[in-house]
Amino acid sequence: MKIVVVENYEKLSSEAARIIINQLKKKPDSVLGLATGGTPVGMYENLRKAYAEGEVSFKDVKTYNLDEYCGIDPKHPQSYHYYMHQNLFDYIDIKPENVHLPSASENWENAAKAYNDLLNQTEIDLQVLGIGSNGHIGFNEPGTSFEQETFVVELAEKTRLDNQRFFNSLDEVPRYAITMGIKNIMQAKQILLLISGKNKAETAKRLLEGKVSNDFPASVLHLHPNVTVILDEDAYGLQK
Fold it and tell me: Catalytic site residue 109?
């Protein structure tokens, strides 16, 4: 596990974008695994800028997102479909048919199986991850088996509370989601984990201690041969 500590969130965002840009320059038809949430927003902003300036193209890129809420319309402002289009897809030259997210508005179990089948037919070159305060990656909550593939998960109350800031109330936060399983995530050739902010300092400290346990799902990344963790100083603060 390669640990990169940068000064602030802006540096984290630019460094993460630089890793993706270098990947696309090396392999223009790369398959990217993408994440949502607050942390990657700056990374996507940098990628949009790089595309606008002609530094990189996404025309041959394929993407697979980690997860999507269940029972939420793709056009809902808090769906991850909407997030990805607002933060990246609408501003780059990616082909609509090369964009993949779980379809979780109905028939959740069937949708999870269909998405898992898709993932098993491809190989992700670079998977971007954030981390939940309870150590979840994707929506793989504590206790999830490391052998778990794409599935419908009941979100932990801590996760729903953390995500309440994106909704008008806790009641509006979905209780279920479709997520790539830990096994799917670990099959990526390279993994990029982003951790930002003082509110993630305890989480980062626990991850970097190196103990592997499914009580803290992100700890499985210690078993992957090619992981880069980028932290800003606020997230890294408890290591000092």
Answer: no
